[in-house]
Amino acid sequence: AGAAIEAHRTTLVTLAGAIGDYAQKLSALRLPVALVEQLAECLRILQYQENAVDTGLHSAELSAHLAPLPGPALLEAARAFHGSVRQLAGAADHDRPEFDQAEVDWLLGKLEADYAHLKDRLLAAGADGHLGVRQMQEYLQQASQLRRSAEQTAKAAGHMSALDHGLAPPPESRGAPEAP
Length: 180
Hints:
By secondary structure, the protein is an all-alpha fold. It has five helices and no strands.
């Protein structure tokens, strides 16, 4: 998975450079306000996508060096969190005809709850000695990077879908989502 992410990252970085050069050339022109706003939104989406890839790669790098989690409670919390990440990644594909921003928002809320549960379990395992403090910190860092990658993916998908459909961009902060 890391090699595939790295290949996509290379493509994204190349694309980002070309977009940056093009945007700089455009900025020298007098463009209509609507076009400038769309360009800014495209740059925002690109930033979200780059952040998602970079934090995803960092999470994968950290994950490669982690020892197996001790105990069923930690394993179950980690499985639930990783399952939420996979669900969100599938739902955040804005090219799917059935893309639904409300579903993405709901799944992001579920992911946040699963992350909080995993974090609580990791901290408890560190506090009671079932997990070394250093190992606990490494797991927390890996999960945090994966959560950030998922958040950035969801943001990029929402903004891209809105742009594709000529809608206003989604708000940057959302309240507690309701079930779809």
